[in-house]
Amino acid sequence: MIAVMAAFALNANAANPKLKKTNIDQVIAAMTLEEKAALVVGVGMDSGEEGLSATIGAQAELVPGAAGSTHAIKRLGIPATVLADGPAGLRINPTREGDKKTYYCTHFPIGTLLASTWNQQLVEEVGRAIGKEVLEYGADVLLAPAENIHRNPLNGRNFEYYSEDPLVAGKTAAAYVRGVQANGVGTSVKHFAFNNQETNRTGNDAIISTRAIREIYLKPFEITVKESDPWTIMTSYNKINGTYTSESAELVETILRGDWGYKGVVMTDWFGGKDGAAQMHAGNDMLQPGRPSQYHQIIDAVKNGTLDMKDLDRNVRRILEYIVRTPRFNKYKFSNKPDLQAHAAVTRQSATEGMVLLENHHNALPLAANVKTAALFGITSYDFIAGGTGSGNVNRAYTVSLLDGLKNVGITADAKLQKIYADYKEKCDAEKAAKAAANDTLSHLMSFLPQPLPAEILPTEAQLKAAVEANDVAIITLGRISGEFLDRTVANFNLSAEEHELVETVSRAFKAAGKKCVVVLNIGGVIETASWKNTPDAILLAWQAGQEGGNSVADVLTGKVSPSGKLPMSWPLSYNDHASSLNFPRAENFKLDLSTFMGKEAEKTEPRETYDYTNYREGIYVGYRWFEKEDMQVSYPFGYGLSYSTFEFGSAKVEKQGNDIVVTIPVKNTGKMAAKEVVQLYVAAPAGKLDKPVKELKAYAKTSSLAPGASETVTLRFAAADLASFDESQSAWVVDAGEYIIHVGSSSQSIKATSKITLPASKYPVSNSLPSVAFVK
After folding, report:
1. Are 120 and 350 in contact (CB under 8 A)?
2. Catalytic site residue 440?
3. Angle at alpha carbon of residue 393, lines to 390 and 397, rounded to 5°
4. Which of 85, 269, 414, 577 does the annotation list as catalytic?
5. Of the listed ranges 27-41, 559-573, 588-602, 648-662, the one predicted with least confidence
6. Is the pLDDT of residue 98 over 80?
């Protein structure tokens, strides 16, 4: 009898093995087809017997406010895992029904600001702090970072992307991933790939040459995969050359896994793609948030033979390999009490290092020690913008305004102006509330969208005169709301008539009295500056600096910290100077259909250029590559940023070390204030079969904080293979033989030292995939 019972137990255990790190094959063999289909489709597909449910932007049970979950399968010991939005911090609900506690998260700086630090170690520290909150609030994966290329300044999501340059984007994302994952939680690098516009983002077909795909748009992801090993990668909504990215085996299996060696999970963006079975075949392992139709598509496709069970098992294996790494599987006892005070200090310090000093006429900044009163103009001086809207928003406990930040460093803002702006804000808020009350559905949907700021108000002559007499300095803050779903308009790129007049009249009045006027830009992306940048005494690009933004700006304005940020994108003289301006949607010309963001098919019409398809006719010539090729002037070049100090670069020493090229250069602080400098290395290639950019960024590093008179030798290292161009005819990366010119400087247009190195020809074949297609006429 005992033997019979033992045999029964063994058979039961074989039929119902409990998941371990060492028995994944056994668990897969024990799973039913329905269980496999459920595991690869998120919990949003139904309420589920595990008690999980999903709504738009929320996953209610395990971690309220998290974006999604995977299915639990209790009989096999497979727990649910939690996926939560980023990237400027963890996004979950700050309050919970029947619970008096709060669950606030830290709002860190937006992506453009982090990239502007040009400091990978600092970005890693920020990631580490974010990851700690992910861990302690019970999530398993942060849906971040986002690293698509700034192809065009009007892309509505540029605020959470990093750069027009693939090296800066890739290195910044890799540092972020390393930081977050140091906590034993995962990341989801997004949006893989070519998500360079929000207009019709779920249906747009990006028509791109193979060379541009490889050199510009995939290169950041390649760098991140190879340097940080992210747990998951999120495919984008759009198509690439006719195929949805989540249904492209060439993109996901051939390039990502085959060429780059990626071993982790690939998931869709929320409601991304159309055909669940095609996504499974393509190696898109997980469909989020999950729909009943996807579940049934997969089961039916396996039964009718159009989806091979081997493909489904492959994807299930990857998900199980991910699950056994998670805190939830390993029964981590999260506290719901991350150190928010310590993280506030991290965000404050990191924000100062990414702020870019654009203008500083006659050393207007830092503010003199005797400046004690300030006239604050601009609505965002009083209502500072911490970051973007939509999935990139963070539910934080507070946002420090510029008003409060200045108060914290001993500068008092003009009380009469405060009252004027407070009254105006109250009026605008009341009008907004009335509009929302008239349409509850509209109110819910609009909460996800970037809303335009109220028009700027102009001081009367009497108000301006009183402000000049009563204050030591004027500070004007110009703001822009950032967010997903909508691309920006050209009108948003330019200053409004009211903003132009505000800058002009306030600057003129304060200058006439021998006082300074400083403009602070509280924005998420590039705006026009050429027409007005010489009007104020100084311009500080503060970006959207997170919840401590006002304190961070005050630290820079008063000289507690010298600005050391550099632009990760070019700022053109006008919008139309961008090559992609000819092939980018004008958002004002297309009606927004929010239902398409939740998986609904858009109404069928004749294909419309820049909406249904977008021709990337500029090829590899994005950003500074375009402006230098055409010898076009810009308002501010790529890599630009001023300091309160000055630096001297010595001679560059270049040597070949194995497969790497190593450049060393001494940098000395020749100014009067401790500061950091960014050392940027560009390479000009010899003429060859392919057309080449004038030069390209190949390495960069930031010095430590150098005291006046102090020096540091900076070492820059890159692989000789990094000099290759992609030759579609050979399906290979090719390094031409010849003399390469190495330029080292403080921006793409401020070269301080030049050297040379001669290299032999070399070739690095890759899989022949994602071939070019003809541009749509």
Report:
1. no
2. no
3. 145
4. 269
5. 588-602
6. yes
Tokens read off for 237: 């909504």
Upstream peptide bond of 459 is cis (omega within 30 degrees of 0): no
**Alpha carbon distance 171, 707 (integer Å):** 27
Sorted by sequence, the CB contacts under 8 Å of residue 77 that are 6+ apart come out as: 17, 18, 19, 20
CB 664 within 8 A of CB 713: yes
What angle (nearest 5°) sits at the alpha carbon of residue 116, between those of residues 711 and 754?
50
How far is residue 175's CA from residue 118's CA, in Å, rounded to a whole number?
11
pLDDT band at 54 (very low <50, low <70, confident <90, very high): very low
Contact call for residues 618 and 775 (beta carbons, < 8 A)? no
- H helix or E strand, kind and range, residue 360: strand 356-360
Closest CA to 177 of 264, 62, 69, 290: 264
**How far apart (Å, rounded) are the C-alpha atoms in residues 84 and 89?**
10
Angle at 473 between CA 472 and CA 474, to 5 degrees: 140
* d(C-alpha 432, C-alpha 319), whole Å: 44
Cβ count near 78 (within 10 Å): 23
Structure confidence at residue 596 as a pLDDT band (50, 70, 90)? low
The answer to whether residues 758 and 250 touch, using CB atoms and an 8 Å cutoff, is no
The CB density around residue 528, as the number of other CB atoms within 10 Å, is 18
Task: Answer for the pair 477, 378: CB distance below 8 angstroms, yes or no.
Answer: yes
Task: Show the CA angle centred on residue 422, arms to residues 419 and 428, nearest 5°.
Answer: 145
Element at 490 (helix H, strand E): helix 490-493
In the chain, the amino acid numbered 600 is K
Per-residue CA distances from 612 to 92, 206, 275, 279 (Å): 33, 9, 19, 21
3-state SS class at 368:
coil
Q: What is the DSSP letter of 726?
A: E
What average pLDDT does the segment 311-324 reach?
98
**Hey, is 755 helix, strand or coil?**
strand
359, 418, 459, 710 from 375: Cα distances, Å: 20, 9, 11, 37
Question: What's the pLDDT at 398?
Answer: 96
Confirm if 665 and 648 have CB atoms less than 8 A apart: no
CB distance 682 to 748 below 8 Å? yes
User: 60 pLDDT exceeds 60?
Assistant: no
pLDDT value at 7 more than 50: no
Pairing of the two strands 412-413 and 239-240: unpaired
Asked if residues 610 and 205 have their Cβ atoms less than 8 Å apart, the reply is no
Task: Say which residues have a Cβ less than 8 Å from residue 608's Cβ, sequence separation at least 6.
Answer: none
- The yes-or-no verdict on residue 149 having pLDDT over 70 is yes
Transcribe 553-598 into DSSP letters: HHHHHTTSS------SS-EESSGGGSGGGGGS--GGGS---GGGGG
On whether the CB atoms of residues 50 and 95 are closer than 8 A, the answer is no
The side-by-side arrangement of strands in the sheet containing 239-240 is: 243-244, 239-240, 205-207, 613-615
Is there a contact between 472 and 364 (Cβ–Cβ < 8 Å)? Answer: no
Dihedral Cα 682, 686, 689, 693, nearest 10 deg = 30
Query: What is the token pair recorded at 424?
Result: 């105006």
Inter-CA distances, 690 with 61, 262, 620, 742, Å: 55, 29, 11, 19
As a 3-state breakdown, the chain gives helix, strand, coil percent values, each rounded to 5, of 35, 20, 45
Query: In whole angstroms, what is the distance from residue 751 CA to residue 745 CA?
Result: 4
Three-state secondary structure readout of 626-668? HHHHCCCCEEECCCCCECCCCEEECCCEEEEECCEEEEEEEEE
Dump pLDDT digits (tens) for 227-250.
999 999 999 999 999 999 999 999
